[in-house]
């Protein structure tokens, strides 16, 4: 029987988030030469403004992701877009479909809260992440966010039904 990822909605201040966040920042430093500096507050990931999830495998925190509402206008068709932030899966457990499970949970949670689009900002060096998003129906949208002027940044989105 395959191992199952158990997802829990947690506050962004949760200690397991801090541990995964540190691992994610180390990964960003490896591939980009520096940490992700996107500004946000912990309130961004608290209902009703957003949500944050941690994925557990045999009791160990191995994956995470959150969403927050964005100001309407990107893309223009969106009335209430939500933005994915901090999607991350620990290196040792990648390739098992955990990122796809986290992504589905984020989309379902945002849709239940009234989001009509999911948006995200990622980087071209994150080949596996880009492949996941594109295979999940995400397409290029207008540039937005902290890295909008970066040549390495990709801005993707998809409508939620």
Describe the structure.
The chain has 161 residues and is an alpha+beta fold. 26% of the residues lie in helices and 29% in strands. The chain has three helices and seven strands, in the order E-H-E-E-E-H-E-H-E-E. The chain has a seven-stranded mixed β-sheet with strand order 1-2-3-4-5-7-6, sandwiched between helices. The longest helix is centred in the N-terminal third of the chain and has 18 residues, at 15-32.
Basic shape: globular
Strands, total number: 7
Overall mean pLDDT stands at: 93
- What's the N-to-C terminus distance? 32 Å
> Strand count, sense and closure of the main sheet?
7 strands, mixed
Query: What's the helix-strand series?
Result: EHEEEHEHEE
Strands of the widest sheet, in order across it, are 1-2-3-4-5-7-6
Can you give the helix content as a percent range?
25-40%
Structural class label: alpha+beta
The number of helical runs is 3
What percentage of the residues does DSSP assign to strands (E)?
25-35%
Radius of gyration: 15 Å
Q: Which regions are unreliable across 5 or more consecutive residues at pLDDT < 50? A: none
